[in-house]
Amino acid sequence: MAGAGKKARVVVVGGGAGGSFLAKNMQGHADVVLVDPKEYKEIPCAELRSMVEPSFAERSLIYHKDYLKDATIVTSSAVNITEDAVLTADGQSLPYDYLVIATGHAFTTPVSRAERLKEFQRDNAKIESSESVLIIGGGPTGVELAAEIAVDYPGKKVTLVHRGPRLLEFMGEKASKKCLDWLTSKKVEVLLQQSVNLGTLSDTEKVYKTSGGETITADCHFVCITRPLSSSWLHDTILKESLDSKGRVMVEKDLRVKGYNNIFAVGDITDIPEIKQAYIAHKHALVVAKNLKLLINGLPNSKLTTYNPGYPIALVCLGRKEGLLQFPLLTLCGWLPGKIKSGDVFVGKTRKEMGLNG
Ligand SMILES: Cc1cc2nc3c(=O)[nH]c(=O)nc-3n(C[C@H](O)[C@H](O)[C@H](O)COP(=O)(O)OP(=O)(O)OC[C@H]3O[C@@H](n4cnc5c(N)ncnc54)[C@H](O)[C@@H]3O)c2cc1C
Fold first, then answer.
1. Are residues 161 and 288 in the same domain?
2. Are residues 325 and 184 part of one domain?
3. Which phi and psi angles does 23 have, rounded to 5°?
4. Is 190 within a domain?
5. Which CATH number characterizes residue 207's domain?
6. Is the pTM of the predicted complex or chain greater than 0.90?
């Protein structure tokens, strides 16, 4: 632990929704180190809008250095954890007094912000130059992408193939039905309980066979399936016994990792039974920031704040003006939920939370 006069060292592994917010909140209160292979934080809600409007990503891809003025940023992946240090892929050993695991989902995007911007431009060029688009996956990402294309490019033929029996399976059946009706009204063809063999996909082949024997012709395709958790790197660390069978980090109510007094976890990587959303990762980050400050100030473990999952609220964008909102007892579709998210897709709000101009 930090000696007299020396600030406690907090290492945060993962600079996504939860980790970046936590690191920002701990600046000034501790010697903060953020470890992330990417040089930037991405506001996930803006990903699909940026595919139809690439300049949108200028505000949603934020350099870590822009909001972390009083912290050390290590641009590398964490590969191991010992009792007192995090080891990184570029060979560094980062000692910690407190550690926070926030590695969410495995990243597949470029490590450079400039490259990520180019990726959005390439995606957009692909959409612009295609008369027909196939989207594989009917979760929130596939649905939001289908809606963005249907609204911005109404002349293009959009087909959405989903393996499951209904769209947006993380929401209720009412929401799935409203979503299907909305997409159908925008002339999106939705094929349920069918899949496309991902192993046979190529950028030149324009004919796709589904598992149901249907043939789809499309000028391009986008794969929108759930990414795996970024927890495989934890299997050989001291935390291996703290992972559940799905690779999630098991946490106590105060968000400390089971079996550890000085290691916390936040966001999608945790085993808390709730929907996995960025706004929830933020809530975790606030609880952990509070608990870290209490511990740093010498308060006992018994004084730590606990995290209570609230009512699950899910909100999906349907293009620029409409949306689909699910409260526990009410599901709304149309312009009213659209007013909450679909215009700016929470970019201004998130930037303000990170201390930046909206
Ligand atoms: C397209 C899309 C749209 C979404 N829209 C919404 C929305 O509208 N509203 C909402 O609330 N939620 C939304 N979500 C969900 C939301 O993105 C996640 O719930 C949230 O990002 C989880 O935050 P996190 O901090 O746990 O992990 P992530 O945001 O996934 O961040 C993980 C970070 O860890 C880093 N990392 C991974 N492995 C390592 C390693 N070994 N070492 C160091 N760093 C590592 C990654 O680079 C990344 O920066 C959306 C998700 C997607 C994919």
1. no
2. yes
3. -60, -45
4. yes
5. 3.50.50.60
6. yes
23 CA distance to ligand 1 centroid (A)? 15
For the segment 29-59, what is each residue's pLDDT rounded down to a tens digit?
A: 999 999 999 999 999 999 999 999 999 999 9
Tokens of 317: 């964008």
The total number of structural domains in the chain stands at 2
Q: Ligand 1 pocket: which of 21, 22, 36, 226 to mutate (most atoms <8 Å of CB)?
A: 36
Residues in the chain: 358
Residues 6+ apart with CB under 8 A from 221: 133, 134, 135, 136, 196, 201, 208
Domain boundaries, position 317:
113-226+313-348
Matching residue, tokens 């929907």: 275
Q: Is the CB of 15 under 6 A from ligand 1?
A: yes
Residues 244 and 197 in one domain: no
DSSP class of 358: -
CB count within 10 Å of CB 264 equals: 29
Q: Which amino acid is at 329?
A: L
CA of residue 106 to ligand 1 center, whole Å: 8
Asked if 152 and 275 sit in the same domain, the reply is no
Q: What is the pLDDT of residue 107?
A: 78
Instruction: Give dist(CA 21, CA 244) in Å, integer.
Output: 25
